[in-house]
Task: structure prediction
Amino acid sequence: MLKKISFTVNGKALSLEIDIRESLLEVLRTRLGFTGVKKGCGVGECGACTVLIDGTPIDSCIYLAVWAEGKSITTIEGVASKDGELSKVQQAFVEEGAIQCGFCTPGLVLTTTALAESGKEYTREELKRELSGHFCRCTGYNNILKAAEKSLKPEEHQCACGHHGEK
Amino acid sequence: MYNIKGYLDACTVSEAIELLAQNPNLRIIAGGTDVLIKMQHGQFQEAELLSIRTLESMADIKKLEDGTMIIGALATFSQIFNDPIIQAEIPALAEAAVSMGGPQIRNIATIGGNICNGATSADSASTLFALNASLRLESKTGARLVPIREFYLGPGKVDLKPGEILTEFRVAPEDYRGFGGHYIKFAARKAMDIATLGVSVMCKVAAKTLTEVRIGLGVAGPTPLRCVEAEEFAKGQEISKDTLAQIGKLAVKSTNARTSWRASKEYREHLVEELVQRALKTAIVRAGGEELA
Amino acid sequence: MAFSVVGKSVQRVDAVAKVTGKAKYTDDFYERDMLVGKILRSPYAHAKVKKIDVSKAKALPGVEAVLTYWDVPHLKFATAGHPYALDPSHRDKEDRFILTDKARFVGDAVAAVVATDELIAQQALQLIEVEYEVLEALTTPEKALGEGAPLIHEDCERNILAARGYHIGDVEASFAESDYVIEGEYETSIVQHCHLENHISYARQDSDGRIIIVSSTQIPHITRRIVAQALGLPWGRVRVLKPYIGGGFGNKQDVCVEPLNAAMTLAVGGRPVKLELSREECMIDTRTRHAFKFKMKTGVSKAGKLKGIQIEAISNTGAYASHGHSIAMSAGTKFRPLYAFESIKYDPVTVYTNLPAAGAMRGYGVPQIQFALESHIEDIVNKLGFDPIEFRRRNLAGVGYVDPLSKNKVYSNGLAECITKGKELIRWEEKQAGYSRQSGDRRRGLGLACFAYASGTHPVGLELSGARIVLNQDGSVQLQIGATEIGQGSDTVFAQMAAEVLGLPMDMVHVISTQDTDITPFDTGAYASRQTYIAGMAVKKAALEVKEKILNFVWGMTDIPAEMLDLKEQNVVYKHSGEVVLPLAEVAMHTYYDTVFAQPITSDTSNNARVNAMSFGVTFAEVEIDLKTGKIEVKEIFNVHDSGKIINPKLAEGQVHGGVSMGIGYALSEQMLFDEETGKPLNNNLLDYKLPTIMDTPDIGVAFVETEEPSGAFGVKSLGEPPAISPAPAIRNAVLAATGVKFNRLPMNPQRVFEKFKQAGLI
Result:
C-alpha cells in the first residue's frame, strides 16, 4: 500500500509516495540516500539510527515513514552548514576524540545537537542520562561526554576590550 | 520493512472507536515502541494497524478543578518526566518515567502503551498501582473506569475488551495529595534496561507516624502488584528502622516472584525487602518526615 | 628523538567524513536492484537435516533462489582470519560448509533464500520444510567431554578439537622446592563483541564473471582467499572491498557471511545480493569470546618468589573451530613475559560444544587467562600476607627476558614504572588506610592487575604488511596500505608516520582508506594489535624509499649529493643548515613532466616482520559495593600502559577508554546465556545482553609509560587489545579487598554477588 507524504528533510521540502510498511530509517537511507542514518539493531536498542523529528531525537528504525507527514527531519547530513563548515557539536566531537569507528557518531551528534539547541543547562549526570540511548562500543563514552559538555558550553567571546568572557 | 497489511489513521477518538468496531482485527498503534518491535521479532505478521498517535486530546496532562489528575494515554514518557504538574504533584511518576528505556524511546513511547502491553516490568505500572490510578476505557457502547489493579489479568493480559481504547489515566486527589513518593528501578544497567524489580512507594506521615503507606511492585509477580499486608501493618506505626524492616519483610509476602535467567526468586524477594525500605525512607522525607539515619 | 608529527594528537584523517555522515559503510553502497539474502536457522542445537523441501519457498513470487547444503560446494573450509600456512599442519581446522546438513548450534545455517525484498525472503524461509533428527545438545564442555556423548564433528574424538600445550622446566621440581603450593579455580563467561555495525556484505559478479564482495571485514585479503576456497574458485576470481566498518573487535577477523553471500550471487546469475545479519543473528552466528575454566597451582617461596605454575585450561570453542585452539595457545603464551616463573606446565584442551562458535575477540584468550592468573596471584598474596603491589613487582620478568619457546626477547618493559604511576594516580596508600576497617552496607576496596601482550603473532604466524606511496604532482603523497582502519585510528597513525619521514604536514598525506584486494598492497589485516607495529614499519620503509628517490632525483637536478639533503616542511633542504634547496612541489612536477628525466616516484614495499615486541600494563581499580543489593560500582579506574612510543596520544587514549569499558562489562555484567537443556540463546539482543551504557561507565583514567622499543617503527608497540585485559581481575581483586569474598567466576553481576555474599554470611 502506497501513501503520499510531504515532509521536510534537512530544510528541504519533499513529497513522495512511500510504502506504508517502510520505516523512516529505510525511506531516509534507501529512497532519499541519507546513508548517514545508521542501522545497528532495528529495534530501538542502540540509537545508531537517531534522527531529529521536529528537533526531538527519535530512533528512526521504529518510526513508520507515514508518521513523518508534516514533520521536519534532521539527519546528520543536515548538521554542517551548506558550505561544509562543521557545527559546534561536530567540531567538539572531532576535537575531543569522540569518534572511532564512526557508526554511533551520527546519532550521538544529533542527540547532542538537540540538547545544545534546547538552551537548557545540564549537569554531568543529566547529560549522561540524555545520551544514554546510544550504545558505543569503541570509545568507552568518556570522550563523547567531553564532546557533549564542550558542545553545550556557552561560547566564549572576546569583547572589544580584549577580555575573555562568557556570553 | 514491517509486515503490515493495512494502515489507518484515526483523527478523533470517536473515529478510532468506530473503526475498531468495524474491524476487530485492527491493532492499535501509538508510539510504536512495543508494536513495531514485536513485529520486527516476528511475533505477529500481516498486521492491520490503527494509528491513534495524532489524537492530541489523548496526550494532555492536566489537573481538574477538583484536583483529579488526568494523564492522557498518549502522553509520552519524556512528556510526563518534564511535565511541571507531575513533577510538582507526583514526582515518583516522573522518576518512573525517566527510568524507562533511553531518551529516544521515552520521546515516543506512551504511558498507555506501557500499561496496555501487560508487562509486569512496565516502569510506570508500580507507581500507577501505588497511586490507585484508574483507566478510562472507551468503546462504542460507552466508557468505563477501571482501577489499574483490576486491569491486569495475567502476564501480558489486560482487561482491554475488543473495540475498546484506553484514553486516559485518572488519579484522585486523595491518592496523591499529602503523599511523599519514590520509585526505585533496580536493573543491571542504569539505562536501556528492563527492571529486575520496580518499587514504588507512596506514604503519608503525621508527627513521627506513618499514617498511610502504599507499595507498588513490578516484576515481583506475573503482574504488577500491591503489598497489602505490609501496607495494613504500616498504618499508624512509628517511623523507625525497625518498622521499616518489618514493612520490608511483610512486603515479600505479597509477592509471587519467579526464577528466570534474569534473577532468582530468592534474590528478587531479597531485593523487595531491601528496596521497599529504601524507597520508603526517601518517601518519608518527601512526605515531610524526618530522615532516618 | 624529536618528531614533528609523530607523537602529536593530530586529528583523525577520517574524523570529518564520520562526523558528517559521509563515510561510507557496506550498507551505504546500496544498489537499486539489489536482492536480499536471508538464512534459515536451525531451531535445534544439535540435529541432522534428514529432509528438506524447498519447493513451496521456490514457488513464492519474488523468490529468486533457494539454497541448501545440497546446492553448495562440499568443500570444507576454515573461517579464522589467519594468514594461509604452506605447512598443512599449521592450518586452521577446516570444519565448515557454506550451508550445513547437520546443525551444531541453535541458529546454524541450514538453508538460504534470495528474494526481491526482505519480507518475501522472510516469508520464503517460513515455507521451507525441514525434517530434523534431533541429537543430544551438548551445551557445556563437561557434557561434550562426557562418556558416550555424540560427536559434534565426526573426526574429533570426545569432541576435543585440540589438547596441545607445553612444558617449560620441571614444574614438579619447582613445587618440591617451594615453601607453599597454592591452588585455585577460575572461570570466565561467553561474551560478545557488540560492534555497532552488524556483519554485512554484498556480492555480485562483474562482467568477467569475477565475484565482487563488499564486506564489513577486518581482513579483506584473507576473506578473498577463504571465499575462493569455500567455492572452489581460483583466488584471483574473487575481489573483496572493505569500506569503513562499524567496529570489529576481532569478530570481523573471521569469515562469517561472505562465502554464503558469494554463493547467493552465483545462484542468481551474478545479480547483486545483500546479506545482512540482524542484531539477533549477529549475536549467535558470528563469533563469541571463548569461555575458559582454569585450574591453577603455583609454588611460592617464603621470600615471595613465584617458582612454578601449572595451568589446566578448558576452552569452549562452541560449534565450529574458527580460531579454535589458537586462543588457548595465545592465552598460554602471552602471559609468559610478565612474571619470572622458573617452570610452567600448560595443559589446555579446546572442546566443541553445541553453542555459537567462539573466535577472536579483543585480547585473544588473554583476558581469560589474566582474569585467572591475576586473581590467583591475589589469592596467593592474601593467603601468604604479602603486599599485592610489591609481590607483583618483585616477580616481574623485566627487560632481557627471552621466551624459552618463541625465543622472543623483551627489549623494553616499563611495567614497574606503570605500577608506580598507577599507584600514585589512584592514591593507593591514602585510600588503603581509610578502607582497612569498614562496616556498614557500602564497602570500598582497591585492586590491581597486570598483563603482558604481544605485538602481532610472530613466530606463530606470518607477519606481512604492504604499503605503497605515490608522490603526486603537488608534492603531496597518496598512502595505500593493506592494513585496515576499523575505528582504532590506524589510517591516521600511518599518515603521521609517512608525514614524519617525508617532512609533510598531515593534509599532504592522502590515505586511501578502502581496501580493495585487486589494488591494495597485501596485508593480512587488523588483528593481534599488529598494525601500528607491523604495517607501521612497512609505511616507514615505503616513506624512506620515496624520500631516497626524491633526494636522488634532486641530486640529478642540482648536482647536490643526496646525502647532503633532507626533506622538511614540504621542501628539499640542506641537511646541515636547513636552507631550502627546492620546494618539494617543484621537484614533484619535474618527476612527472621533465621531458628528459621524468619518472614518477613511488614505492611499493612489504614488511615481513620476524620480530615481536611485548607490551605491558596495569589496571588499578576502586570499587564500591552495595552489600544489600549486590551491586558493584567502579568508582575510579586507571589503566597505565607501556606501549612503547605513543604515535597519537589522543587516539591512544581512546583505545584505552574503549578497552577498559569492555573490560568493565566483562567484569560486571556481560554474559551470553543459553538454555542448558536446549542450547537456545536467551539474551541475543542489546536489551538483554548487558553491555555498558554511558551511565554505567565511570571516568577512565589513562596514562602511558613511553619506552623505546627498538624493533618497532618510531619505537612503537601494541595497544589495540591490551586495555581490555586487566580491568576484570583488578575489579575482582578490589571486591575481594573490600569484602573478603573471592569471585572466581565472571561476571560479578548482582545475582551472583548476592549468592556469594549470602554464602559468606555478609547478608
About this structure: The longest helix of chain A spans residues 105-118. Residues 2-78 of chain A form a domain with the Ubiquitin-like (UB roll) fold (CATH 3.10.20.30). The mean pLDDT of chain A is 94. The helical segments of chain A are 24-31, 88-95, 105-118, 124-131, 142-152.
